[in-house]
Amino acid sequence: MDLELTSKRAVVTGGSRGIGKAVARVLAQEGCDVALVARTPEPLQEAAAELAAATGRRVVPIAADTGSTESVTAMVTS
Fold this sequence. Notes:
Layout: E1 9-13, H1 18-29, E2 33-38, H2 41-55, E3 59-63, H3 69-77
């Protein structure tokens, strides 16, 4: 499927596992570079490395808690 997303960027929250990780994988397979966001750094970094290796796209892990305004602000500026 070609969603015409090549060279686009995406932010996926809850991206270290489950549905978030699956969404990030499909976006990367479609050509997006992905900012992968989750609260726990270790599984987040593992997921980002896995997706980058599998898709050849840039996948940047960002540890953030989307329930915290301060954390979201830090996420957006990083």
